[in-house]
Here is the input.
Amino acid sequence: MKRGEEKSLHVSEAITRDLLVQEVKVWSRRIGVEERLKEIHVRPMKRKWASVSTRGRLTLNAELFAQTAEFRREVIVHELVHLKLNHGSHNSLFRALTRAYLYGLNTR
Here is the structure.
């Protein structure tokens, strides 16, 4: 996911690496890609908030630690839907699934 407008953050919302990784694991179960997600890396990134490979390597920008929970959720879901669909396209199916996971009624 490319970097864009950051959300304003309250200092109390900042999280640790362990909590960020845990968020990813929870979402990977919800989206049904837990078995496909092989690696989670957190590192500084200049141009993106995150990226995912078709082999299951998710890389998150370390600056996500200081972003809001809502924004982190959007980034995580965005990348995991790419993994689910096994492609990087932002077609109508991708957009519909992303919206469904983020705003759908069944978020378990």
Summary: The CA atoms of residues 7 and 71 lie 7 Å apart. The first strand starts at residue 39 and ends at 43.
